[in-house]
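Example S7 (structure tokens).
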């Protein structure tokens, strides 16, 4: 009986551990063929989810790449933003949809132009 309970607990822990790692997996962008612009698509996401206050990447922030208030600041941090967003590490306390993640990663992958 003890062996059965041990096996059940081990299987449960394995399932829970594997399901968490699948949620954190990097999902490749679904479709980078659509036109993504910084002003219309990326900036609103950064301002809504990243540059919200000094505790994140708003005015006065020293976290990670610091402030993400201007195109130049976002452009300079584009690689770390892409990595953090695609892995699900950022933004803190919320989750971006697959479409929102794709918007940011595709924009970076396509040169992160200021358009």
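Recovered sequence:
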């Amino acid at each position: 009986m003890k062996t059965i309970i041990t096996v059940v607990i081990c299987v449960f822990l394995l399932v829970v551990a594997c399901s968490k790692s699948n949620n954190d997996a990097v999902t490749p962008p679904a479709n980078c063929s659509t036109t993504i612009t910084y002003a219309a698509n990326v900036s609103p996401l950064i301002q809504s989810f990243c540059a919200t206050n000094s505790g994140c990447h708003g005015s006065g922030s020293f976290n990670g790449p610091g402030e993400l208030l201007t195109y130049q600041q976002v452009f300079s941090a584009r690689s770390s933003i892409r990595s953090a967003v695609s892995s699900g590490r950022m933004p803190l306390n919320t989750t971006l949809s697959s479409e929102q993640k794709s918007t940011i990663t595709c924009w970076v992958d396509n040169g992160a132009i200021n358009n």
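Notes on this example. Residues 25 and 87 are 6 Å apart (CA to CA).
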